[in-house]
Amino acid sequence: MSRQRPGTPTLEEVAALAGVGRGTVSRVVNNAAGVRDSTRRAVQRAIAELGYVPNLAARSLAGHRADAVALVMTEPDWRLFGEPFFTEVVHAVGDALTDTPAQLLLTLVRSDTERRRFVEYARGGRVDGVLLMSVHAKDRLPDMLAEAGLPTVMLGRRSGEESVTYVDADNTGGARGAVRYLLDAGRSTIGAVTGPLDMYVAQCRLRGYREALESAGAAAGASLVVEASDFTEVSGHRAMTALLARHPELDAVLAASDTLAAGALNALRAAGRRVPQDVAVIGFDDFHPDRPTDPPLTTVRQPLQEIGRAMVRLLQEEMEESPVAWRHVILRTELVIRDSA
Q1: Could you tell me which residue ranges the HTH lacI-type domain spans (predicted)?
Q2: What are phi and psi for residue 252, nearest 5 degrees?
């Protein structure tokens, strides 16, 4: 008969009793290959002695994972799901999961109620891990998932002090290189259209813009920066219009995304400004929009396919065996020169 213990036995207690690692217990519970028969028997004896029951009902009955990964977007506006950047991320993650048995579940979490509901849903064994994107500075969802012991990987980060595992692009370096290129091309009054500054990605791109100007001794005044309310084309048009009203002499602009840059191009055209003859424009992302910009957009390329693969790889590692440290991966960007600059 199995020994009864107060409380619910944990995977770690089984591992300690069997004298193996947590990942080995996980592989035995999931009936995975690669475990010696003697080790498997030791783990099974520890499970029986402790009365351990896997957290997921589906696993205890069928002996396998939920085979599902949640990709969660934390924007309040569901329409942003239709923006090209998010579409590209979904494709990149989906491609990275192609050779795995996991289904990709897309969900939108917008309020504290939805955060609690999603954490309970995930804890109930319906997903094996969580990928988070578009997380704002004060969002507690990553911490809630970590506290619940759910494997979690973020696209981007909330601050420079982020603890949860994440994959990000070199946003500061990419923006810095773009502005240096504009300066080297002889542009002297360079504006910036940022994303919402409660997102660390927007802060990093703004930091790179300022660092490049300051190192060159060029103007980096606050009036040359306009914060867009989101990363949409409409916001880019509105911000560019405001920037032109402040600085009619503007001869270049760095936009914090390609959709913002597309909006800026429309605003410049409406104002009678030629691109790049009068104003050079650089975006950020280098995805493939439904309709090409006119002129074709110079932009900072994020390696989205590599980002998707890295997110899935880190999540798989966290699902297999909890690491002793958070992993932070920052991938290089590349300036892609086209006609707008």
Answers
A1: 9-63
A2: -165, 155
**Beta strand segments in 195-251, E:** 225-227
Q: What is the pLDDT of residues 219-238, one digit of tens each?
A: 888 999 999 999 999 999 99
**334-336 sheet: strands from edge to edge:** 225-227, 190-194, 252-255, 280-285, 298-301, 334-336
Tell me yes or no: is domain 171-301 CATH 1.20.1280.290. no
150-154 CB contacts, 8 Å cutoff, 24+ apart: 150/119, 150/122, 150/123, 151/315, 151/318, 151/319, 151/322, 152/315, 152/318, 153/129, 153/311, 153/314, 153/315, 153/318
Per residue in 116-143, pLDDT (tens digit) is 999 999 988 889 999 999 888 889 999 9
Helix, coil or strand: residue 14:
helix
pLDDT surpasses 70 at 71? yes
Any idea what the Cα angle at residue 199 is, between residues 195 and 200, rounded to 5°?
110
**Domain limits, the chain:** 11-62, 68-169+305-331, 171-301
Instruction: Report how far apart, in Å, the C-alpha atoms of 47 and of each of 29, 50, 53 are.
Output: 9, 5, 8
CATH architecture of 68-169+305-331: 3-Layer(aba) Sandwich (3.40)
Measured distance CA(327)–CA(46) in Å, rounded: 31
Closest CA to 331 of 171, 208, 207: 171
| pTM of the shown model | 0.77
Q: How many CB atoms lie within 10 A of CB 330?
A: 15
Report the distance separating Cα 121 and Cα 175, nearest Å. Answer: 39
